[in-house]
Amino acid sequence: MSSTSIASGQEPPSNKPPVIEPTLILQLPDDLVLSCLAHVSRLHYPILSLVSKTFRSFTSSLELYQTRYLLNRTEGCLYVCLQFPNEPNLRWFTLCRKPDKTLNKKKKKKKNTTQSSSGNILAQVQILNSPPVEWSDSDIVAVGHKLYAINKEDDNPDSLNCVQVLDTKNQTWKAVPEDKRIFRDTDFEGKVYKNLDGASGKRSSLVLKLKDSTIDLVGSGTVCVIEKRFYCYLSTGVFLWSNSEIKSFGLKKVQGLEGLPKFGLYTNVKLVECGGKMVVFWDKYVPARGRYKEKMIWCAEISLEMRSSEEVWGKVEWFDAVLTVPKSCKFVYAIAATV
Predict the structure, then answer these.
(1) Is residue 199 part of a domain?
(2) pLDDT, tens only, 229-256
(3) Helix, strand, or coil here: 5?
(4) What are phi and psi of 136, to 5 degrees?
């Protein structure tokens, strides 16, 4: 601090950059503000919501997601449903991704080989009227920004309580009106896929061929369809794919996947398609003083490349632990919606 500044009683000049108040954009009409925000990736909304109460209101408004839809700026959003012990309702989480701040993709890798955190986490979503735990065995289907749950155990299949829908824009579950409950089977080249949970805890993939009404059982694993290709994970620790036939001799191993951890034999694994990539969720128990009290839910994002008619290669974009839960917590669903 200079003697001149001290003598005059003035504050010395600061080297900090001037703070720019976010008032300029808020002087625009609300429609223009929504249009501007709709062109910004949802990954930045958590930060924008901290700018001011007005921004928080905009980023959480239903009008913003309607604008994103009209401007064709929708993005895939991953939802995870968990059943916590001694709780009457299911909990819902969404995968909050950290925006990629890398400007130079050719940046040299650090010599440190330790795995750094991706910054991606599962954050709980406050869902109004979330279905009770009795719905944990229900089928769930994503259609655009809505998730439909069909209760298989309902005594009355014609009941309005048989089908419920989660609107991810306003985070609210509600029953589907009877006149709106019209279902059409969607299939992949004449086949419908379904994951099954066996009594022993093993997962199998059921394939129903619509043309000849035959059924195939594909090992023990979990399935998803990405760009008209069928992918499954087997409890033996192998990822397989198929372009047409689903029988065992038609399945081929996904190549690559360097860096992806090995899963335990009884690990609960979920595959989800999101934005043309395969997202893998799995759990891993955390030892504590000789006993397992908690488990970590891990997530990996894998990009897929068809290098020939016979080879699909997978590249692990990132993987990280995204949530810690009690060991008795049940992983119910992992599904992607478009918002």
Answers:
(1) no
(2) 888 888 778 898 887 544 444 778 899 9
(3) helix
(4) -65, -20
